[in-house]
Write a structure and sequence with these properties.
Alpha-Beta Plaits; three-stranded antiparallel sheet; 8 strands; SH3 type barrels; 3 domains
Length: 346
């Protein structure tokens, strides 16, 4: 009994020495590595350094315990069976380390790695962390069972059948989830963008969840779009690559109009609106392009520029009022839709 107490004391002493040694050693190593990682632009290496510190402590303690165990009478007492416990312990430490690395990477991606960060990325990241942790634990558990001689092939087959049944039962939910992951990773849209779908729905993106995406329309209603539908839609993103955009306003004048005068007057009005209207880009120089001989008059387009999509409504409103007033003053006719009919006699 005394010998076994001495062996237990040896194991406890080895664990204590390993803990103190690893603390001291890793404090020095981490300081040196932090100097190196501080020079990099990314914080991913700093995160990985922090999350791997604790698993490294456990690994050092396990190594010391293993060699101390070999110098005790326990291997003889347990007929060598006790040594087999160190392999599952090593597997669990590896599982713990991989889980922490996966979480650190997903946190980094949600906070810094994604070009368009936001609540949608964080939401998907939290879901992926749970899925990754479950997958890592299942794989680690299967490896531990294999160490103890448990036949895991039937278990894997059963899990595969169960997984297939669950996948079929939650087919739509899983499809929406993976579509949400795709949207978050590919980033065709982000929170705050003003978008228009090919079915005509348009508005501000307020949330990209794991199942649906919410779009707030200008009348302040929410359109809930399943992620699978959104992933398959043709999306016009009015905030990408930039918020500024051109506005093309169609106009027309009578065939009797002096086109040089029309161009000069219209450019003058457009320039004033461009500089004074709320939401217009002040330093943009508007321009006019005649483009069609219409049935009732000569058609042309005025190109203005606004700071973002919704500003086009007010800018167009102010321009049409000013142009109509100026055309009246300059006696430039805006034609009504009309058609001349010639009747041949005889």
């Amino acid at each position: 009994m005394v010998d076994y107490l001495a062996d237990i004391a040896l194991l406890l002493g080895a664990a204590a020495v390993a803990y103190l040694l690893s603390k001291t050693l890793f404090a020095i190593i981490i300081k040196l590595m932090e100097r190196a990682t501080s020079r990099t632009k990314t914080t991913l290496d700093d995160r990985l350094l922090r999350v791997l510190e604790r698993p490294a402590h456990f690994a050092v303690i396990l190594v010391f315990l293993y060699f101390a165990y070999l110098h005790t009478d326990f291997p003889t007492l347990f007929d060598g069976g006790g040594i087999a416990l160190f392999t599952p312990a090593a597997i669990m430490i590896c599982v713990y380390a991989v889980m922490r690395v996966a979480e650190a990477f997903l946190d980094w991606y949600a906070e810094e790695g994604a070009p368009h960060r936001g609540a949608s990325v964080t939401s998907i990241s939290d879901t992926l962390k749970r899925v990754a942790n479950i997958a890592i634990i299942v794989i680690g558990g299967a490896m531990v069972l294999g160490v103890f001689g448990v036949e895991i092939t039937p278990i894997i087959a059963s899990l595969g059948i169960a997984g297939l049944a669950v996948a079929l039962a939650f087919q739509d939910t899983l499809a929406n989830f993976f579509a949400g992951v795709y949207i978050t990773a590919d980033r065709p849209i982000k929170i705050g963008d003003y978008v228009k779908l090919d079915n005509g729905d348009e508005g501000y993106v307020v949330k990209v969840g794991w199942r649906t995406t919410q779009i707030r329309t200008l009348p302040n209603n929410l359109v809930i779009v399943p992620n699978t539908k959104l992933a398959q839609s043709v999306i016009t993103n009015y905030y990408s690559p930039a918020k500024e955009m051109s506005v093309v306003i169609p106009c027309s004048v009578s065939y009797d109009s002096d086109l040089k005068k029309v161009e000069r007057v219209t450019a003058d009005v457009a320039t004033k609106i461009q500089k004074t209207a709320k939401g217009a880009v002040p330093d943009f120089v508007p321009f006019i392009r005649f483009n069609e001989f219409g049935e009732s008059g000569i058609k042309f387009s005025v190109i203005l520029r606004v700071q973002e999509y919704t500003d086009k409504y007010l800018v167009t409103h102010e321009f049409m009022k000013a142009l109509h007033s100026r055309f009246k003053k300059e006696k430039i006719e805006i034609p009504y839709p009309k058609r001349d009919i010639y009747i041949r006699k005889g």
